[in-house]
Amino acid sequence: MASQLLQAAVLGVLTGGVYALMASGLTLIFGVMRIINVGQGALVILGAYLSFVLFNTWHIDPFLGLLVTMPAMFLIGVVLELVFIRPLKTDRESLSVLVTYALALGIEGVLGFVFTANYRELSVWYDTASVPLFGFRITLVYVFGFALCLAILGALFLVLYRTTFGAAIRATMLNRTAAQLIGIDVEGVSAVAFGIGMATAAAGGAVFGITTAFNPNSHYDLISRLLTVIVLGGLGSLRGAVVAALIMLVTQDVASVIIAPEWSAFVFFVILVAVLLVRPQGLYGVRVRERI
Amino acid sequence: MRRPLLTLFAAFGLILTACGSSSSPTQAGPITIGVSLSLTGDFSSDGKALQQGYDLWAADVNARGGLLGHHVNMKYVDDASSVQQVQTNYQNLITVDRVNLVFGPFSSKLTIPASTVVDRYSYAFPEPAGGGPDVFKRGLRSIFFVQPAAVEDNLVSYTKWILSLSPRPATVAYATEDDPFTQPQVDKAKALLDAAGVTSVYYKTYSSEPIDWTPYAQAVAHSQADVVILGTQLPDALAFVKYFISHQYNPKTIIETTGPDQGADFSGKLGANTEGIMVPAGWTAAATAYGNDTFVSKFIAKFGGKASDISADAAEAYSVGQVVDQAASKANSIENAKLIDALHSGTYNTVQGPMSFDSTGKPQGGVGVYIEQWQGGEPVFAYPSSVAKKPPEYPKPAWH
Q1: d(CA B373, CA B161)
Q2: What average pLDDT does the segment B301-311 reach?
Q3: How large is the average pLDDT for residues A20-24?
Q4: For chain A, where are the E strands, in sequence order?
Q5: Among candidates B204, B210, B246 on the partner chain, residue whose Cβ is nearest the Cβ of A213
Q6: Please, are residues B119 and B135 in contact by the beta-carbon 8 Å criterion?
Q7: CB contact (8 A) between residue A261 and residue B239
Q8: CA-wise closest residue to B352 among B278, B262, B292
Q9: Among residues 94-113 of chain B, which lie with CB inside 8 Å of chain A?
Q10: pLDDT tier at B115 (50, 70, 90 boundaries)?
Q11: pLDDT value at position B19?
């Protein structure tokens, strides 16, 4: 039992890293733009399909293919922000939910038209390879996925905390109006943040596509999980998204062993509710006082 | 005064004729057979294999002059593996497209709701893949399951083989989708093995919707059971095996209800690791059943590949056509009511062997469902010895 629990915990940490990567874009976008991008799940699936095309057509490994898919998704993100988000001048927070949901449905429709509703998977050579660890085995793809997440999230933290542009992003996250007043191009920051969010979706999509069979409808389950992660972590907190993703996956995997797999999600939600009762702003969220 | 009345009667007569003409083709004119197939979604690989089987039969029967002289056209509509869509499809096929006959879709999950719609219009519903117990519980007279045995008995041969082994395996782990096709098979196998004293160390059902199967595969692997019995479709069949390979859990024997019978769709993802994996099967390319050698050679000629690439689904769909062909000859009609009467009596020869149907459409007196095992890169009948091409590999070789 102890070995099984340890294995579940390790697997939870590794898969939690992948969810952290996918959720990081969502929370970054919220932090900078104050919008909830409910299309993030669909964009992750779009990323998975881009990796699928590269892999199936040109036999490009999904991890290597990120050199193509991440810049491509970044550009798509910038364009989407310019076309769909920036025109929202009033009631931005509410309208953005509708707009990004419409975006998700549009992406789902296009993917369904091009790829049909068939389930796809990225059958790479290492999806059955494993390495021994503490007396059990860990599938290599999860190790590779976790390493990728560490690299990308590390780079994201470096950009945010060690560069002038990162300071501009953080300033915009703290107070959009004040940032504008001190000369920061918040519109430009928003477009780049949206692009970064899409690039992380591409990376998350590649790993998701290797570990899970997916089709154009897969984004519904995914976005509900990602939203849960950023609510627990605190809306707009990158650190919170990472910690919450780890908590969610470790809790679920361990609960699967101790109780049963079908109860794992319920156990996590009990924890989520308990945390929100004590800290309504989430683990790393900040309470905002608004004048009314 | 009489003229308008006559016109009214004539118009009414035309309407009645139009309403009744769907299953009443003109003398020796072409007919259309409608099928809802899962060409996309969860069951898409099975749906496409069914289409191959139906197409091959239609080509065959047309080459022989048609079904009682009627040239056969097949009309397929995609149900995307959806319970809602399959009902809409059959409703439209019968009332809008006015097809003459309908054949069944894939899986018990879709066949059950579809058969309710089809029965409402008194169409015969021969079907290749809906054999769960619930299919026969509703007392429909129009449905006919064209496989050698009811689905719940699919793993009976396997349990007999397990119990014949010496030394007998000590432990079994079971995991199955909560699907009307897979779960009854696994539950019956468990009841038989429990009664014989083989210890169950793990039993779990999981959602038939695609989920993360890792926790279930992990629990099965951790049980270290000698025998693994899985109630799967193709995606979870692959996921479980991949997990076992990556975690080097090598049970002495493993059987999956569906997946290993999918030919290249299964072997293409697992390569040499298919070796030793079993599946219940009523059909194999090497079987000597009625017309099987012709079916296999024509299949390869039409679709390419080799005999081991042919999905059992295609043979089952082809069998539906064979049964209807013989029933039409027997009834000397392709009217649905007469076909239904004919199918409730007599024995019909198929590439899966001979079969007849009871009052609920359940197959009777068939040759039974055997065990097929992947050996040397192809699926072969391995049990019972009366049909086995090769003896079962036991214990299963280690993963590559």
Answers
A1: 13
A2: 87
A3: 91
A4: 130-133, 136-139
A5: B210
A6: no
A7: no
A8: B292
A9: none
A10: very high
A11: 41
- Which residue from A280, A266, A2 is spatially nearest to A134, judged by alpha carbons? A2
Domains of chain B: 21-150+289-364 (3.40.50.2300), 153-282+370-383 (3.40.50.2300)
Give B8's pLDDT tier (boundaries 50, 70, 90). very low
pLDDT of residue B22: 46
pLDDT for residue B7: 45
What six digits make up the tokens of A239? 């650190």
Chain B residues with CB under 8 Å of A224 CB are: none
- Residue A82: both structure tokens together: 């310019």
Q: How many helices (H) and strands (E) does chain B have?
A: 13, 15
Cβ atoms of B363 and B160 within 8 Å: the answer is no
Judge whether A125 is closer than 8 Å to chain B, CB to CB. Answer: no
Give the mean pLDDT of chain B.
88
Q: B183: part of which helix (H) or strand (E)?
A: helix B182-195
Beta bridge pairs of residue B230: B175, B256
**Distances, alpha carbon B369 to alpha carbons B147, B155, B173, B362, B377, in Å:** 9, 8, 22, 14, 21
What is the residue extent of each domain of chain A? Answer: 20-237
Q: At which residue do the structure tokens 């064979």 appear? A: B322
Cα A143 from chain centroid (whole Å): 18
- Lowest mean pLDDT: which of A132-146, B115-129, B178-192? A132-146
Which run of H or E residues covers position B118? Answer: helix B108-120
Give the span between the Cα atoms of B208 and B206, in whole angstroms.
Answer: 6
Place of tokens 């009627």: B70
- Contact at 8 Å (CB) between B220 and B226? no
Please state the rounded mean pLDDT for residues B148-155: 84
- Do B218 and A129 lie within an 8 Å CB cutoff? no
> CB–CB of B106/B38 below 8 Å?
yes
Nearest Cβ partner of A119 from B206, B235, B245?
B235
**Are A123 and B269 inside 8 Å of each other by CB?**
yes
Interface contact A7, partner B, CB < 8 A:
yes
Minimal Cβ distance to A118: which of B40, B219, B246: B40
Give B161-219 pLDDT, tens digit per residue: 999 999 999 999 999 999 888 999 999 999 999 999 999 999 999 987 766 788 899 89
**A99-126: average pLDDT:** 87
Q: How far apart are CA B294 and CA B298, in angstroms?
A: 6
Closest-CA residue of chain A to B241:
A128
Residue range A29-50, pLDDT digits in tens: 888 888 889 999 999 999 999 9
- Are B218 and A117 in contact (CB < 8 Å)? no
Q: Which of B41, B42, B216 sits opposite A261 (nearest CB)?
A: B216
Query: How many Cβ pairs closer than 8 A exist between chain A and B?
Result: 62
Looking at residue B366, what is its pLDDT? 53
Do B269 and A257 lie within an 8 Å CB cutoff? no
- Please indicate if any CB of chain A lies within 8 Å of the CB of B243: yes
Q: Which residues of B351-380 are buried (b: 16+ CB within 10 A; e: fewer)?
A: bbbebbbeebbbbeebbbbbbbbbbeebbb
**pLDDT for residue A66:** 96
| A117 to B245: CB separation less than 8 angstroms, yes or no | no
Q: How far is the C-alpha of B143 from the C-alpha of A105, rounded, in Å? A: 39
Q: What is the mean pLDDT of residues A235-258?
A: 91
Provide the token pair at B145. Answer: 């399951």
Instruction: Tell me the shortest Cα–Cα distance from A170 to chain B, in angstroms.
Output: 36
Q: Taking the mean position of all CA atoms in its chain, how far away is CA B250?
A: 29
- HSE at residue B22, side-chain half, CA atoms within 13 A, is 22
Q: Any chain A CB within 8 A of the CB of B385?
A: no
H or E, element range at B350 = strand B348-350
